Amino acid sequence: MHDPETHFIEQLGLVAEEDGMPRIAGRMLGYLMLHAGTHSLDALAEVLQVSKASVSTNARLLERMGLIVRTSLPGDRRDFYELPDGQWGGFFAVVKRKLERMQGLLGVAAAQVSPAKARRLEEARRFYAFLLEDLDGKICRWRERRRGDSEG
To answer: How far is the C-alpha of 51 from the C-alpha of 20, rounded, in Å?
Structure first.
């Protein structure tokens, strides 16, 4: 457990857990970040030393979030998962959805409470709006930068 790869995988699991995700989802993400290509549920369960059911549940979660993709191989009925190259825009999308949900919740709540409480909620809503202001632009600029990096 002292090698840098294992340490990174374990630390990403803890970071994910702090963000409200299952630790195993973070560990899976860490492993897939370090190991390109497709990986079966059996292989992921073995390397992460967790049950196949837990890996399956967390793979579906990460897939729904748009962080990993499920693939198949010709002649093999199993599902395989991978973190595709250039997936970082998908991470932006996850962050954007969280910010938009919070901004929407604050807006609805501000319309339903007393004016004094609404002011505080509206200030928080404006903060989230500020964070969202140029997120799409950042995503576009990232994709342009990435294209430039791969061409150079």
So the answer is: 21
